[in-house]
Amino acid sequence: MEHALFPHLFKPLDLGFTTLKNRAVMGSMHTGLEEIPGGFERMAAYFGQRAKGGVGLIITGGIAPNREGCVADHGAMLTNESEMIHHGMITRAVHDNGGKIAMQILHTGRYAFHEHLVAPSAVMAPINFFTPRELNEEEIEKQIQDFVHCAGLARQAGYDGVEIMGSEGYLINQFVSKVTNLRNDRWGGSYENRIRFALEIVSRVRQQVGKKFIIIYRLSMLDLMPGGSTLDEVILLAREMEKAGATIISTGIGWHEARIPTIAGMVPRAAFAWVTEKLKGAVSLPLVTSNRINTPEIAEKVLAEGQADVVSMARPFLADPDFMEKARQNRPRDINVCIGCNQACLDHIFQGKVCSCLVNPRACHETELLIEPAAAMKNIAVVGAGPAGLSFALHAARRGHQITLFDRQPDIGGLLNLAVMIPGKEEFHETLAYFRRQLEKLGVCLVLGRKVTLEDILSHAPGEGDNDQRKFDEIVIATGVVPRQAVFPGSDDPRVVSYIQAIQNSDTLGARVAIIGAGGIGFDVATLLTHRGKSTSLDGDAFLKEWGVDRTYRFPGGLFPVDPGRVQSCGETGSSRTVYLLQRKETKPGAGLGKTTGWIHRSVLKQRGVEMMAGVVYEKFDDRGLHIVHDGNKKVLAVDHVVICAGQESRVELAHALEEMSISCHIIGGAHKAGELDAKAAISQGAFLAAEI
């Protein structure tokens, strides 16, 4: 039966020996659960919930076939039957919930963060500090056998298939590319020799697992590396993979060391689906496309236009495990949309933490954060409709509590309403829309547009009927933060403004601006002030042009023959403003930015001519400009305005007033701890408190 809204997305995919119930794959994503005590039990709950949510096929995070291939020391691997037993928990949970699951076999090669790393050649990766040891002929054969053995164990563990990771710059990709394969034996030199390693793995895995087992080959469709594969070479490898026995080809985009954004929020939706389309007709295998496909509408469009046969979404299933079930029920507005922030998923992994999700703190914490019906319904006042207050109100209402949510602003969202104004952060609109929709459906009472007083909190709260009025049983203070004031002579000048004023009134600022504070807020303000025209995050062609990606694929690696880290279209998206980004600390500006996105922000601002200075002393501001001391030298920056992004202070007046009256309350979010604006921590804290009350 054809689905009314999303007919292509919900069309089954017949693989001959098995059928996927729809065209959505949950793409591979390391969670950090793979290596911790009790992690497999937690992964079983995590994957089981997403199978129950209706995704057609799940792919696990990368599992190494041997010690050398592990991401780091003590990384997850599948090399023997004792390790295999743990995987049975995952496959049973998925199958019990009507799903299918494949295990990704990942050998990191020169990307491994340990001393036992190996590669086709001893070429150190720029994102690593270990140099790999070059494999000899005998060791190459052993690596192939380890892949085959791992696949066999995966089949015994109950997996429906394996994905062999040949993309993103990992070991197999390192053999394929002449950038990393400098060999002159039968494993190097010509392209036919360089792809031998990949083909041997897939053909021997097929021999090992038989015909009725899914083999996905993750093909590096677009290296985004100077000297990377050409389109003709990619097509040749895809055709050879079909002959070798692959069931599905999944197209990967960009190496991890490539200086092109591929999955961050500033990347337009489905920005790289056009690349997958270039394989259509070249092979008869189903083709999977990925990267920044985060709504069923976008997935349907990609499939309907024939750009791919299947869409892969990893982080969207972190954000909402019921993504597919809500789409099937024609409820796309109820989907908690992934915003591509990377803050709780990829950044956590690079910090050695367990993965989660900014908009869904239950992700990977399904056994710890339980949102269950409350034993006794309570009447709860929540003051502050920013991220912390919204998260608490939503989760507490789901448990059955009656919630009244107060805020002095006329709309919910708090400082999230500033975030959506920053080019590249437009996806926060989805988070705000989700909260509005869910609060309405849950019957949360909103009291907006006026300052909240003690009388509001201490008076009777509205109940279901006119005569049913009860006092609040619990009070939650989520009043957020206020910008910290910088104090120096002239800081009270009206031309010295807060980041809130600057974002809300950016058009009124002059042609020369100094920003005090080079944390996340300072970078956001600099991005906004140096931007003009339409945000490239909303325009796929403009984005590709901006980052030098060759949509015609005439050049190797898919890049125009220039520095791939150089932003190309500053004349279009650049600035007529001169902006200085300053900080007191001696550390590198932006040192605290996210691991996976900080380099993008720095690159953009550098190309827009933003001058960044650390170790700055602010002396005064007057009609000449901002007087500073930098590197021991006194300077005057002849600026029209100064924007203060020097941190925040908790807004706790109401909490203190309650404490003085010996009335207990819960304080969460920025009101609890001021720092960099941190929606991730605020939403998580709100959810965990709601689970406890």
TrEMBL record:
Domain NADH:flavin oxidoreductase/NADH oxidase N-terminal: 9-333
Stored Pfam families: Oxidored_FMN, Pyr_redox_2
The keyword Metal-binding is assigned to this record: yes
Cofactors (names): [4Fe-4S] cluster; FMN
FAD/NAD(P)-binding domain ranges (all copies): 379-665
Gene3D superfamilies the UniProt entry points to: Aldolase class I, FAD/NAD(P)-binding domain, NAD(P)-binding Rossmann-like Domain
An example molecular function term from Gene Ontology annotations: metal ion binding
Keywords on record: Flavoprotein, FMN, Iron, Iron-sulfur, Metal-binding, Oxidoreductase
Biological process annotations from GO: fatty acid beta-oxidation, unsaturated, even number, reductase/isomerase pathway
Record-linked InterPro entries: Aldolase_TIM, FAD/NAD-bd_sf, FAD/NAD-binding_dom, NADH:flavin_oxidoreductase, OxRdtase_FMN_N
PANTHER family: 2,4-DIENOYL-COA REDUCTASE, 2,4-DIENOYL-COA REDUCTASE [(2E)-ENOYL-COA-PRODUCING]
Sequence similarity: In the N-terminal section; belongs to the NADH:flavin oxidoreductase/NADH oxidase family.
Protein name: 2,4-dienoyl-CoA reductase
Origin species: Desulfocicer vacuolatum DSM 3385
Taxonomic placement: Bacteria, Pseudomonadati, Thermodesulfobacteriota, Desulfobacteria, Desulfobacterales
